[in-house]
Amino acid sequence: MSPPVVVLVAPSLPENIGAVARVMANLGVADLRLVMPRCNPLDPRARAVATSGGDLLEQATLWPTLDAALVGCTSAWAASALPKELQKEVLSPRELGPRLAHEHAALVLGPEQNGLRYEELDRCTGLVHIPTEAGARALNLAQAAAILLWEWRAGALVAAGSSTQTHPEPAPLDEQSALADAVAAAL
Fold first, then answer.
1. Which long-range contacts (CB under 8 A, 24 or more apart) does 159-168 make?
2. What pLDDT was estimated at residue 166?
3. pLDDT grade for 40, boundaries at 50, 70 and 90
4. pLDDT tens for residues 9-35?
5. Among candidate residues 149, 158, 153, the one with its CA nearest the CA of residue 130
6. CA–CA separation, 184 vs 62, rounded Å?
7. Are 7 and 76 in contact (CB under 8 A)?
8. Could you give phi then psi for residue 101, rounded to 5 degrees?
9. Which of 13, 28, 165, 177 is deepest in the core (most CB within 10 A)?
10. What angle do CA 77, 67, 29 make, to 5 degrees?
11. 130-133, long-range: CB < 8 A, 24+ apart
12. How far apart are CA 44 and CA 53, in angstroms?
């Protein structure tokens, strides 16, 4: 099973980028994409927290927009703590795990202060919600990444021990978007 791409949108704390890189390294995920980070991902504080994920900080790619960061991805799943008024599929972390195993799937995590904006959520295939207590809904970026990437890893371990069904590979998101635009124009 292919590891997902991890996309952090406008992260502002180097420690969070480092902690996400560490979790990724722990769980065998290597593609870290940063969309307009508000801090230096190579800051010494990021490196100190990253430990075994230090190489991922060096290899992380920087992108000007979420759309640019998702080029080549066939699906993108946005983590969101708040109920959103979008017509998107909402999955639990356990349901998301197998979906992240599709080749070129992306996990999108938003800024620490406010999370992803509606425009960013709209660019994603669906949403994942980690159930938490009503008075403490927002998780730290690395905590959310750890939970969601563990579900991918657990699903991959189970699938490795069983006969897997083959599913057709979805088209890249940019092609899906172009098709949707063409259909809308035709209607």
1. 159/1, 159/98, 159/101, 160/1, 167/102
2. 52
3. very high
4. 999 999 999 999 999 999 999 999 999
5. 149
6. 32
7. yes
8. -80, -15
9. 13
10. 50
11. 130/79, 130/81, 130/93, 131/92, 132/81
12. 13
3 state DSSP class of 101: coil
Q: In this prediction, what percent of the chain has a pLDDT beyond 90?
A: 63
The two three-digit tokens of residue 28, written as one number: 């065998």
Residue 11: name the closest of 57, 52, 74, 75 by CA.
Answer: 57
Q: What is the rounded distance in angstroms from the CA atom of residue 39 to the CA atom of residue 170?
A: 34
* Residue-level length of the chain: 187
Element (H, E) at 183: helix 173-186
Which residue has tokens 């890249």? Answer: 172
Tokens for 87, please give them.
């017509």
Q: Cα dist. 90→64, 114, 152 in Å?
A: 27, 19, 16
Q: Give, in order, the Cα–Cα distances in Å from 2 to each of 30, 70, 100.
A: 11, 16, 8
